[in-house]
Amino acid sequence: MNKVVKNAKEAIKGMRDGQTFMLGGFGLCGIPENTINALVESGLTNLTCISNNAGVDDFGLGLLLKKHQIKKMISSYVGENKEFERQLLSGELEVDLVPQGTLAERIRAGGAGIPAFYVPAGYGTEVGEGKESREFNGKMYLLEYGLTADFAVVKAWKGDTMGNLIYRETANNFNQPMAMAGKITIAEVEILVPAGELNPNEIHTPGIFVQRIFQGTNYEKRIEFETVRES
Amino acid sequence: MSLDKNGIAKRIAQELKDGYYVNLGIGIPTLVANFVPENIEVILQSENGLLGIGPFPEKGKADPDLINAGKQTVTTIPGSAFFDSSLSFAMIRGGHIDLTVLGAFEVTDKGDISSWKIPGKMVKGMGGAMDLVAAAKNIIVATTHTDRHGKPKLKTKCDLPLTGINCVKKIVSDLAVIDVTDKGFKLVERAPGVSVEEILEKTGAPVIVEGDIPEMKL
Fold first, then answer.
1. Shortest CA distance to B157 belongs to which of B123, B184, B189, B119?
2. Based on the structure, what is the number of domains in chain A?
3. Considering only residues 15 to 34 of chain A, which have any Cβ-Cβ distance to chain B shorter than 8 Å?
4. Looking at chain A, which runs of residues are DSSP E strands?
5. CB A225 to CB B131 under 8 A?
6. What is the span of the domain harbouring residue A73?
7. DSSP at B56
8. Nearest CA distance, A105 vs chain B (angstrom)
9. In a domain, A158, yes or no
10. Predicted-complex ipTM score
11. Is A122 in contact with B130 (Cβ distance < 8 A)?
């Protein structure tokens, strides 16, 4: 079984205007840089994007926003992108803000075949408006729904030709749950090895969740806030 | 005299207990890490997927794959663990975090908090704040007692969109330590040199004052 494609352009083949895609990463950490660039070049529009953050103005998801390729975002925190805030306040962009833990669990649940579940986050706030609520053991919970997408795009550190993935440090974040939730999951990796070379004990995402994999190039790995110790 | 940011953080650090797993929010809460008493061990959780946050890296050693929830570069401590976002919030939602410290725009005497949105002005999103306040066993708010215009941030009702309800247990401000009880705000300590009268005057809700109120020991 070989799931390897040549590059990001080949990986997004078949993606159409108006589809929903998930994009892994937290801030700029662990984002699939190669596939984002391919999406910008593709000119696809009217897309719905599920991503914890929205990149910054000139990097990451910000590049897709600048070209107005995104119709709707489902995110938890979008604070680092001025163009995003402008499009949101002017009504050009539709945004569904979801508490971060609820977003992560909706994605995990979607990938795990769980259509809905209850969480306490957001009860009594505007997030809970119009949602079903229910009391368990004296505490109130909101009904939240699982999320899936036409495509899930994730970034891993190492991967093999069968689609098994290992993430590095905090670059795991939303990549692992999203890998489960795509009808087609695309994984771009820094290091691609033949099946059998990764230690099965260390695999985070088993290959069954991944349909297309390729080794990315020219990773910039931009740091959002470089903070160092005072000497 | 009212406390500065570091003073607030120092007082909150006195609430830490040996073996606590703690989530610190962005801003003043992050400073609490600098004042952990030497005789206790506290493990810091970062909701983007790290248990055991270490100090900021040395110059030139920042790793783009290793950040905290504020997207700052950090390091790990011996015994750290990495995990994905859904597992991270299982720790939070499942009640495994002993203490959460976060900032606020407003806090009420019922323990309601607003901290994430100013309609028409700031729409950054709630991030993990709603998950944290809905689930943490113990929530301390670190804040100035009044806003930039001198208006009370401790009130009977939040005017801004809520982050959570009935959840804040304690407030440490630049003027006072106040518990949120079933009967409302209760004054516990005053900042050095700050009078009970000043605290009452700058609080936008009734405050229970019982007996002599001691000064904070910092």
1. B184
2. 1
3. 26-30
4. 20-23, 47-50, 70-75, 94-97, 116-119, 133-136, 139-145, 149-160, 165-166, 182-193, 212-215
5. no
6. 8-116+146-215
7. P
8. 5
9. yes
10. 0.96
11. yes
B-interface mutation test, from A22, A31, A167, A169, most B Cβ less than 10 A away:
A169
Asked if residue A112 is part of any domain, the answer here is yes
pLDDT in tens, chain B (218 residues): 899 999 999 999 999 999 999 999 988 999 999 999 999 999 999 999 999 999 999 999 999 999 999 999 999 999 999 999 999 999 999 999 999 999 999 999 999 999 999 987 777 899 999 999 999 889 999 999 999 999 999 999 999 999 999 999 999 999 999 999 999 999 999 999 999 999 999 999 999 999 999 999 99
| Contact yes or no for A107 and B86 at CB 8 A | yes
Domain for residue A167, yes or no? yes
- A181 touches B at CB < 8 Å: no
Domain holding A33: CATH number?
3.40.1080.10
Q: Give yes or no: B58 in active site.
A: no
Mean pLDDT within A187-206? 98
Distance CA B49, CA A215 (A): 24
| Token pair belonging to B134 | 């809905």
Q: Which member of B47, B189, B197, B198 is catalytic?
A: B47
